[in-house]
UniProtKB/TrEMBL annotation:
It comes from Nocardia lasii. This is Class I SAM-dependent methyltransferase. Signal peptide: none annotated. Pfam families: TPMT. One of its GO terms (molecular function) is methyltransferase activity.
């Protein structure tokens, strides 16, 4: 790539958004990466340190059904499964899911292709722990409310939702990504989803940068 070209994610996102396809750039990006012509900018060898800290401090009971959404190549899903959590992980990109299975051939994780904007009906209220790390912010603001509403639907009674996102002081006007404001984080909350904690946590991997880490709980009975 020369200096005059935008990064692959922005180039492909611009094409997809011009075609009114908010998610149409992920598969081409992973396909370019598989062909060796681009890189997936969020790919990491290590699990997200904000997830690692949180899960070590918040051990989940035996039998917990976990869901990692927008799992990419699966690094975070493998960490979740290594904590004894029965883990499903999904991504809209078939190439990403093939990559996860190839990277972790003996994985206990159930990797599958699915679309957060149209999740399988059988997943409704089916998970005790849902992990959302920087996927909502990778979707344009026009579909953000729909994505968040669908995340809520995945939560079983008594479930926990962990949200990790980049911080925007004001609504982002260009992307990807479209980092989240405090109001965006608060918008996860409903009578059926209680906000437990919202933190701004320094990123150990990027100096002087922080991310939201927010924890929500779905009560067994919705709050009045
Ligand atoms: C910015 S990346 C984040 C990857 C990973 N969660 C992390 O924290 O590094 C967003 C991921 O979500 C996937 N994705 C985007 N929209 C999606 C959707 N509607 N349904 C499922 N996966 C989606 C993308 O393919 C990509 O792997």
């Amino acid at each position: 790539m020369n200096d005059a070209q935008p990064p692959a994610d922005r180039r492909l996102a611009a094409q997809a958004l011009a075609a009114d396809d908010p998610t149409g750039w992920f598969e081409p990006l992973y396909a370019e990466a598989a062909a060796g012509t681009s890189m997936v900018p969020w790919d990491r060898d290590e699990p997200n340190p904000l997830l690692v800290d949180w899960l070590h401090a918040t051990p989940q009971p035996p039998g917990t059904r976990g869901l990692v959404l927008g799992c990419g190549y699966g690094t975070d899903a493998e960490f979740v499964a290594a904590q004894g959590i029965r883990t499903t992980a999904f991504d809209i990109s078939p190439t990403a899911i093939r990559g996860a299975r190839a990277r972790f051939p003996r994985s206990p994780v159930t990797y599958t292709v699915a679309d957060l904007l149209n999740p399988p009906e059988s997943w409704q209220h089916a998970f005790d722990l849902v992990v959302e790390s920087i996927t909502v912010q990778s979707l344009p603001p026009a579909v953000r409310d729909a994505a968040i509403a669908n995340i809520r639907i995945l939560l079983a009674p008594n479930a926990t939702l962990l949200v990790i996102a980049d911080i925007a002081p004001a609504p982002a006007t260009s992307g990807p990504p479209w980092p989240l404001t405090r109001a965006d984080i608060d918008s996860f909350t409903t009578p059926a989803l209680t906000q437990i904690r919202v933190e701004t946590v320094p990123r150990p991997d990027v100096p002087d940068r922080h991310r939201w880490r927010a924890e929500f709980h779905r009560p067994a009975q919705p709050n009045p």
